Amino acid sequence: MKDAELITRIKQGERDLLGILIERYYDQIFKFCYYKTGDETLACDCAQDTFLRMIRYMDTYVEKDRFKPYLFQIASNACNDGLRKRGDCFIEDLAEAKEKLAARADRGDAGEAVAVAEAVRAALAALPQMQRDVIILRFYSDLKISEIAKVTGVSIPTVKSRLRQGKNKLKTILEKEALF
What we know:
The chain has about 180 residues and is mainly alpha-helical. The protein is about 75% helix and about 0% strand. The radius of gyration is 18 Å and the shape is globular.
């Protein structure tokens, strides 16, 4: 069943279908929240808050294009609220990532894959929030440029610019810090 049909039926009173919608998107929303906050516990809280907000405002949702960008916009706001309440930003910095990379270098291939993932996550932390968001939405959440524009509330050319700048900065950071 497609999202639009599910939402229509939920609005008509079939609230038991909310579980299907939540199950369909939970993993993607959690991953997005994790990459945006850098903290697993906070990401879990933000993902739950996303779906609570979705349920609370389901009756006001108007189907325009696709539901997924709408849900990611809620998740982005939930993460921003969670970070603001906690009073900090992205947790890891490049120095912490380098320490973890050195510790995992001796563990072989599996440790190396995890180390690379941590290096990229730490490099993401060094980006400005607006560039980090578009990179996470594009490459980790697999949203299209037009969907990212809806989530972030900026124009398509702005998304493209932030994506290009963010990728260039990531490359520079990873090369400069010798994380690869």
